[in-house]
Design goal:
about 90 residues, mainly alpha, about 75% helix, 3 helices
Length: about 90
């Protein structure tokens, strides 16, 4: 009975320190994963550029043109809204 009364007397507006700590940890993990993904993409791009540096000029120009075209396709795909299914 006394335990139930003690919990009833607690204010609902008080922040639970454990919830605050867990929320901060989850926010940190989201930021960490975003930074990790950004580093991975930057590392992949650097590796690709290192490979390109070893190619003769004509091959380098061709590879750059392909890379620009792929980036353009990706940007266009991201800009288009998802298509509705015709099976309805």
């Amino acid at each position: 009975m006394q335990l139930d009364a003690a919990f009833t007397d607690l204010s609902e507006q008080q922040a639970n320190p454990l919830d605050t700590t867990l929320a901060a940890e989850e926010a940190w993990e989201r930021k960490y994963e975003a930074r990790k993904a950004h580093r991975s993409a930057a590392d992949a791009q650097a590796a690709a550029l290192n490979k390109l540096a070893d190619l003769p000029k004509a091959a380098l120009d061709h590879a750059r043109a392909e890379l620009r075209a792929k980036r353009k396709e990706t940007a266009q795909a991201k800009a288009q809204p998802p298509r509705a299914s015709k099976d309805r």
